[in-house]
Write the structure tokens for this entry.
Amino acid sequence: MIKIINLIALLVLLTNGFASVYPKNADEIVGLYWSPKKDAKIEIFKRGNRYYGRSIWVASMRKDSKNPDETLKNREVLGIELLTGFSFSDDSYTDGKIYDPESGKTYDCKMTLTDKILKVRGYIGISLFGRTEIFEKIK
């Protein structure tokens, strides 16, 4: 009987411990983040019931020259919405897109937040075929 009680107590502790590292509410993602190379700051914000991210600081000013849309090639990278249209469900942010100004390509994307680490996974088709980058929240 004591073994069962100890097992239940252990399961409760583990469950609560794991649950506490994920967002308690969807808006915990809102804030400022360093890009993976720390050469840009990204502001994640909420518009309606969706989440977006834009560059608010870049280490070096440059144009969006790789953009496939000719009319956008002369815009500054600073201020571009890089993350668009994410919804929150089951401790992750899904159904969004990420724009990569280095390549000029847009990918499907999902994100997960654990404490101050935001894992951003861009992919084509299914997330198995993609790459994850780490963004660190700025306090």
In short: The two ends are 47 Å apart (CA to CA). The mean pLDDT is 88. DSSP finds one helix and eight strands in the chain. The first strand starts at residue 31 and ends at 34.
